[in-house]
Amino acid sequence: MNHHHGDHDHVHHGSELSPVEARVRALESLLTEKGYLDPAALDALVELYETKVGPHLGARVVARAWVDPAFRTRLLTEATPAIAELGIGGRGGEHIVVVENTPEMHNLVVCTLCSCYPWPVLGLPPVWYKAPPYRARAVIDPRGVLAEFGVTLPETTRITVWDSTAETRYMVLPLRPAGTDGFSEDALAALVTRDSMIGTGLPKALPVEPAEMPV
Ligand code: FE
């Protein structure tokens, strides 16, 4: 399969459909009319991605990697079967590659051509991921892009940018936050944000305990 092109920006005029939306609507009607498409099945597919498949699944993968070194090794060696161990996989996730952040190396994922994204672990991509400014600038000025997302890394941390394609879709394994020793997998997963798995963010930091004041 070739890398697909063809995300375009459209100006929306009130309730009018954009050209792409109109074409999708027309195709859907035609396919339904001809009996090729079951509208209920289509609704179920849309609902699946809107409600069931999302970054909470990727967060489970990350949390498992943080607590289970053998799983982490399998995940970094061959991600797709490792992710399947958690019952996660499917369309858009046939070949997922997981890249690990370290104090020396931060990873950032982009699709410079369109919007390829590891759907089974992250759900549907955010709007900015599909937008030309992110796609162009992530490669040219990753540190500047990270700053706009509120992420400032030490100067000594190198940044590697990974270009996802329809065939190979990347996910970032973020650094485990400090102070989380003994956390359950669920508690760890709750710290993993969508953006931390794209590389435009970091996991949620723990609230800093106020210093004990003498009474
Ligand atoms: Fe793409």
In terms of DSSP E residues, the strand content is 5-15%
Question: What would you call the shape?
Answer: globular
For CATH, the homologous superfamily of the domain at 54-198 is named as Nitrile hydratase alpha /Thiocyanate hydrolase gamma
Number of strands: 4
Instruction: Give the low-pLDDT segments.
Output: 1-14
The SSE string, one letter per element, is: HHHHHEEHHHHEEHH
Fold topology:
Elements: H1 19-33, H2 39-52, H3 55-67, H4 69-77, H5 79-84, E1 96-100, E2 105-110, H6 119-122, H7 127-130, H8 132-140, H9 142-148, E3 158-163, E4 169-173, H10 185-189, H11 194-198
Parallel strand pairs: 1-4, 2-3
Helix pairs in contact: 3-4, 8-9
Bound molecules: fe (iii) ion.
Textual characterization of the structure:
- This protein is mainly α.
- The chain has a domain at 54-198: Nitrile hydratase alpha /Thiocyanate hydrolase gamma (Nitrile Hydratase, Chain A), CATH 3.90.330.
- Helix content is 42%, strand content 10%.
- It is built from eleven helices and four strands.
- The strands form two sheets. It has a two-stranded parallel sheet. It has a two-stranded parallel sheet with strand order 2-3.
- Helix 3 (55-67) packs across helix 4 and helix 8 crosses helix 9.
- The longest helix is centred in the first third of the chain and has 15 residues, at 19-33.
- The N and C termini lie far apart (68 Å).
- Mean pLDDT is 88; it is low at 1-14.
- The chain binds fe (iii) ion.
- Fe (iii) ion binds at residues 111, 113-116.
